[in-house]
Amino acid sequence: MAFDPEVFLKGYSDAYNSRDPEAMRSFLATDDPRFAIFEDFSGDLLNGETYALMMDSVADSTGEMSFDVVRCDTFGDFAVVHGYQSLKARPGEEEEEGYGTLVLRATMWISLAGGAPKILGGHFSAVPTDDDDCGCGCGCGDEHENEGGCCGGHHEG
Predict the structure, then answer these.
(1) Whether residue 21 sits in one domain with residue 89
(2) H/E element, 23
(3) Domain identity same for 12 and 76
(4) Which strand ranges, in their side-by-side order, compose the sheet holding 36-39?
(5) Strand partners, 71
(6) Backbone region of residue 21 per phi and psi (left: phi > 0; alpha: psi in -120 to 50; beta: other values)
C-alpha cells in the first residue's frame, strides 16, 4: 500500500490533540541514531532521546495541531513531506496563551521501512508574518538584512 501523508499526519495530530505522549512517540523513530529534529525558532537540533523526553510535556500543551501537506515524494523506503503545521489555540486560550494560531513550515523525512511509517528527521521553521520584515520568523518588524543569524544578530538574549 502506498504511503498517505495526509492519513499519517492526521494520526500524529490526533495523538497530540488527545495529549497522549506514548501515541506521539509511536510516530517517531527516536530509537534510530539518525533521528534529528531541527527547530529554527529554538535554534536546537534535537536527538531522539531528547525529543522522546519532550513528548512527556504534550499532556500540558494547549492548542490543536493540524497539518496541510504541500508535497510528498517517496524514494524507496523513505518519504519526504513538505507542508505547514498549525497549532491553533483552543477557544478562550488565545488571551491566556498569547496567540491565536501558530503556523510553521515543516519538512519531514519519514522512514517507511520496518512496518509502520515513522518520522526520522524534520525541520520546522516559523512562517514570516507581515510584521516580520526581516524574514527570519522572529516577528521583530525591523527592515534589515538577515545576516549573521536572526536579524543580523541585533536581538539580545
Answers:
(1) yes
(2) helix 21-25
(3) yes
(4) 44-47, 36-39, 118-126, 101-111, 78-88, 64-75
(5) 82
(6) alpha
Q: How far is CA 76 from the centre of its chain?
A: 24
- Please provide residue 93's backbone torsions phi and psi, each rounded to the nearest 5 degrees: -95, -15
> What does DSSP say about strands 44-47 and 101-111: parallel, antiparallel, or unpaired?
unpaired
Taking the C-alpha atoms of residue 78 and residue 129, their distance in angstroms, rounded to an integer, is 32
Other Cβ atoms closer than 10 A to 154: 13
Residues 77 and 120 in one domain: yes
For residue 95, the enclosing domain spans 5-126
Written as tens digits, the pLDDT of the chain (157 aa) is 689 999 999 999 999 999 999 999 999 999 999 999 998 878 889 999 999 888 888 878 878 999 999 999 999 999 999 999 998 876 665 555 555 788 999 999 999 998 899 999 999 998 887 665 555 555 555 554 444 444 444 444 3
Q: What is the CATH number of the domain that holds 11?
A: 3.10.450.50
**pTM of structure:** 0.76
